[in-house]
Amino acid sequence: MNASMLESALLQTHFDVIPFGIYVVDVATYELVFVNKHFRDSLGAVLGRKCHEVLYESDAPCLHCRIPELLTPAGMPNGVTVVYDHYNERDERWAQMQEKTMGWPDGRVVKYSIAVDISELKETQNSLAEAHAELAIRNRELMAQNRILQENIELREHVERIARHDLKAPLSALIGLPQVLLDNYDLPAAAADVVRLIEQAGHSMLEMLNQSLVLFRLETGAYVLTPMAVDLADLARRTAARMATMPVARGRTIRVTLAGRPLAPGERLDSSGDVLLLGPMLQNLVVNGLEASPMGGEVTIDLARDRDRVLVAVTNQGEVPEPIRCRMFAKYVTMGKRGGTGLGAYSAALAARAHGGQIELDAATPGWTTVAVILPSAPGVAP
């Protein structure tokens, strides 16, 4: 027995213990000369039959047959090994095929094929490919939606800028008319009160327009901070006094404290900041507190100094709803308030961050809410 035949005999023994399907076919006749135990259990007695008939139920040699690639021009083994994936329609399974020619103990030239079932792998690959395609489609759809959203945002901001510009001029003229009426006409007391209310409403509208422009500049990073000396105690007193006259404060109390104790008349807390931001920031937080407080409730503005920082804490009865606590300072977040815009806490957060400070929600005490603003005594540029 030559070396090639000895190799074939040893291979036949080894083939039988391999847990994959292995068959050996005569390259000249396509007859099966050996199948290992794995194939015998599934195919039965098939020796001597054509491989294409047994494996693929075909009357002719398979179109994918690799025998020509594995022989020399003289019809002898050329030492080449081919590996390829093949789908068998007979049993609807995928197999990775490894094939090579060699000499068989009886002198014939044969091809052996090792078939590893990779159907599950193919199914996984197909599922991944489908998921990837679906993800690509969803990604394109999301990008298109984002483009539309961005265009809508830009359009809205453009319209808002135009509206602010167009409204300010006639509104400024309207605000001046009440004073003309009061100075030049002898109005009854009741009519004079109405005129003053019109003037006050006009100033409020103008302030809202100005604050809207400030908010836009803060959002776009175009706002230039203008810090100056500011007495936070005086700012808190004036804010509390002004808000106490508003309808939202009806039936509620506003207190101002310094480090937890009542603020004494004339007492100061000197710091530095941009009043154009600090005033509306404090007012927004107090309004939120008043709106959340029950009738008979109390809103406290507490001021404190901690080394190189100042702390402003607005506390009120009532709790922030659990679902929005983690998004408290995001834009348009509101819940349970009629007419709420979701801009109060958001604009307060922008103002705090513009000073290089921070804002925090403390809802740990049941039945109470505290929003704390921490500002540097000498504000820097917002990170």
From TrEMBL:
Catalysed transformations (reactions): ATP + protein L-histidine = ADP + protein N-phospho-L-histidine
Top-level EC class: transferase
Chain segments annotated as coiled-coil in the UniProt record: 121-152
SMART domains the record matches: HATPase_c, HisKA
Any one of the GO BP annotations: osmosensory signaling via phosphorelay pathway
InterPro entries documented for this protein: BphY/WalK/GraS-like, HATPase_C_sf, HATPase_dom, His_kinase_dom, HisK_dim/P_dom, HisK_dim/P_sf, PAS-like_dom_sf
A molecular function (GO) term: phosphorelay response regulator activity
Keyword Ribosomal protein attached: no
Entry superkingdom: Bacteria
Pfam family, one: HATPase_c
EC number annotated for this UniProt entry: 2.7.13.3
Stretches assigned to the Histidine kinase domain: 162-379
SUPFAM superfamilies the record matches: ATPase domain of HSP90 chaperone/DNA topoisomerase II/histidine kinase, Homodimeric domain of signal transducing histidine kinase, PYP-like sensor domain (PAS domain)
UniProt keyword Amino-acid biosynthesis present: no
Keyword field: Coiled coil, Kinase, Transferase
Descriptive protein name: histidine kinase
Annotated organism of origin: Desulfovibrio sp. U5L
Top-level taxonomy: Bacteria, Pseudomonadati, Thermodesulfobacteriota, Desulfovibrionia, Desulfovibrionales
